[in-house]
Each structure stands twice: as C-alpha cells, then as structure tokens.
Amino acid sequence: MTHQLLDTHDTKVVVWDINGRVWHLAGVNSGREGVRLTKQAGFMFAPVQLLVSEGARQDGATFLRSVRSKKEWDFLVLISGTAKSAAMDPVRDFHAVHDAWFRGWSTDKPVTVGYFTRHQGWRFQQAQLDAAPEFVGDVDPARSALAAYKMSAVALDPLERHFEETSVWTNASGFGEGTVRARNAADQPAWPRYTMNGPGRWSILDPVGGDLLRLVQTPVLKVDETLRIDTHPRHRTARVYTTGTSQFRNVWPRLAGRRWMASLPPWSSSDITVKVEGGNTSSSLIVAVTPRSSRPF
C-alpha cells in the first residue's frame, strides 16, 4: 500500500464511516469495496465572509475579522459489487455493498473523510449527511447491479486536520531550563498542548513576541503526577492525572487567571522556552500540535 501511494500522483479519497468501515473512493484502490467517487463539489474551500464596520464619517470600511462558514460537500458516487469472486451472485453482491454503504452514513454522527497527496500527505475532516441521498436514473439498479447517487454532506468544522506533531524536551542536564520546538505546518494558527510530569513547578513560554519573555506558571506537581494543558481559547483545560488511576482533577482555576494569549503562526516553527523548579533529570515536557488547513491539499 505504501509503495502504491508513493508511485502515483492521483489524489486519494477515503471515508471511514460511522461503523468504522473503510471505503476507498478515489485514487489508489478506488472502488475496492464497491463504491467510487465520480464527481464532487464544495470540498476544497469553505465559504468565507469578512466582518467590517462602517461609519457615517468614514470612507470605506474597517476590517474586523474573517469568519468561515460550514463546508458543504456535494458528490456523486457509483455503487457496484466488489467482484471479489467470479462465483458470487453479482446482484446479491451489489445489494450487500449498497446496504453497507448507507448504513455507514448518518445525519447525527459524522464520518471521517481523508485526502492524501504525495506532496501534502494526509488531511482529515468530519462530515455528516444534511440531505437525503438522491438516486440518479430511472432503471431498477438490480438489472445491472449498478446505481448512482447524489449525496450531500456538511462539515461543521470547515478546517482540515493533519496528523499530530510532537516534540519532547527532557531535563537531562539538570539545569532546569531549555527550549522545545513546536511546528505548525499549516495555513491556520495552532494552539499547542503540553504534557509534563512531576515533581516541580513548570513555566512555559507564551509566544506573544517582544523583548520580554512571558512565562505561564503551572501548579506544583508531585512525583507521581502528570499535568496536561490545552491552550486553545475554546477549550482551555489543565488536568492533573495520578499514576495508577484514570481519575483526574481540574487545576485550571489554580492558574489564577494566567493563560496563553498567543497561538503559533501559520507555516512556522517556534522555540518554546520551558523551565522547571524542583524537578530532576527525569523531568520532561511534550508539546503537541495538530496543524489545521483551510483546504484538503
């Protein structure tokens, strides 16, 4: 499979349905499960709107921000049998594929759509049905064991996700200070997530820029504790986990209003300063970034 992916320039489109079943719709191995993508629209960019303010004594307008709407994906699929065995009844095979395909879609639960290119690698998005599939044609599909459908799905989150990238800093020298590189290989800002172990109190750079470093301090950790922090403004969390148990406690209030103000810029690699007080040579910090793009490739 790896050699096949690298030997062709075709864009690969794969769907992981709500039951966990894999469907190769385009590119390498397209139609292997009996479904092929023949046409699609709206998959590339989500609609964008500029928010501006205008005044009675102002020429033109003042830019405030841009907003992305949901991404609406319209596509045409061709359903046939898998033809894995010449002895298999083609009509029975077609109906099995037809049933499995539509069982894997829902208006309430999203599927995962993946795009792969040799240049950009994998990017993923979740989408769910927002309209009833429309049969194309006027002939009983059982006659030819073939059917085409127009389908429409919506991605409520219009941005594509990449694979998570991580980097680790370890206090091997015992000095208690160093840098860890966080890479954002996408065209949208990214908010890093940090995982660090005890004992000690950690200080992590907030990359706001300027001559003075702005460090955010964490609560003191014990020897058997691990702190996980998500800096994203929409879901800021700081949880401490204790070794040997799945329970955690929320320590975000103990940050006393201290939080990260800046994200990682698009297409950047940032050196994040980290410090640990009361740690040891086993003290380590992991920074994780999930790049997000406005397009599948």
How would you describe what is shown here?
With about 300 residues, the protein is mainly beta. The protein has 2 domains: about 160 residues, Elongation Factor Tu (Ef-tu), domain 3 (Beta Barrel); about 130 residues, Jelly Rolls. The protein is about 5% helix and about 45% strand. The strands form 5 sheets. Strands 1, 2, 3, 6, 7, 8, 9 and 10 form an 8-stranded antiparallel sheet that branches. The two termini are about 20 Å apart. The relative contact order is 0.16. The model has no long low-confidence stretch (mean pLDDT about 90).
Helices, strands, pairings?
Elements (H helix, E strand, L loop, with lengths): L1 H6 L4 E5 L5 E5 L8 E7 L6 E6 L8 E7 L2 E10 L9 H14 L7 E7 L3 E9 L4 E3 L9 E10 L4 E2 L3 E6 L6 E8 L8 E5 L3 E6 L7 E4 L7 E6 L6 E6 L5 E3 L17 E10 L6 E6 L2 E2 L4
List keywords for this structure.
297 residues, mainly beta, Elongation Factor Tu (Ef-tu), domain 3, Jelly Rolls, eight-stranded antiparallel beta sheet, six-stranded antiparallel beta sheet, 45% strand
- The CATH class of the largest domain, by name, is Mainly Beta
Shape: globular
Could you give the count of β-strands?
22
Poorly predicted segments:
none
Any idea of the CATH topology of the largest domain?
Elongation Factor Tu (Ef-tu), domain 3
Distance linking N and C termini: 20 Å
How are helices and strands ordered from N to C?
HEEEEEEHEEEEEEEEEEEEEEEE
Query: How many domains comprise the coordinates?
Result: 2
Helix content percent band: under 10%
Instruction: Quote the beta fraction.
Output: 35-45%
The helix tally amounts to 2
Largest sheet: 8 strands, antiparallel
The secondary structure category is mainly beta
- The CATH architecture term of the largest domain is Beta Barrel
Q: Provide the residue-averaged pLDDT.
A: 91
Rg computed from alpha carbons, rounded to a whole number of angstroms = 25 Å
